[in-house]
Amino acid sequence: MIFRGFHRNRARILDQFQVELTELEKALLELDKSDEANEHMRYRLKSTYHHEDCDMEQKNLLQQLRDKQKEYGKVIGQWAKSSSGLYRIQTRPC
């Protein structure tokens, strides 16, 4: 039997993942710039430890980024396995 691969759909889904990951990355970079300019927030650039009463914006952004990156990697891996070698995953520099 021949099954449709839905290649166009897969490409659109991966494009959407990349857009979402890029938006999260930009938000984190903007937060870093803001933290660098704020003496009271520079601690977030030097440490991954977070006090309960501290601003959790960085930690939340990192968690969202981690979750989205994990989901993206999982989808890529599943599609690569199911493609029987028809797809080739290429990486490109940032």
Descriptive notes:
- This protein has 94 residues and is an all-alpha fold.
- The chain has one domain.
- Helix content is 65%, strand content 0%.
- It contains three helices and no strands.
- The protein has helices at 7-37, 43-46, 57-82.
- Helix 1 (7-37) packs antiparallel against helix 3 (57-82).
- The longest helix has 31 residues, at 7-37.
- It is elongated and about 65 Å long.
- The protein starts with 6 loop residues before the first helix and ends in a 12-residue tail after the last helix.
What's the layout of helices and strands?
Blueprint: H1 7-37, H2 43-46, H3 57-82
Helix pairs in contact: 1-3
Distance between the termini: 40 Å
**Count of the domains:** 1
SSE order in H/E notation? Answer: HHH
- SS element count, helices: 3
Query: What kind of sheet is the major sheet?
Result: none
Strand content: under 5%
Q: Can you count the beta strands?
A: 0
Q: What is the radius of gyration computed over CA atoms, rounded to a whole number of angstroms? A: 18 Å
The chain-level structural class is mainly alpha
* Principal-axes shape call: elongated
Mean pLDDT: 83
Unreliable spans = none
Helix content: 55-70%
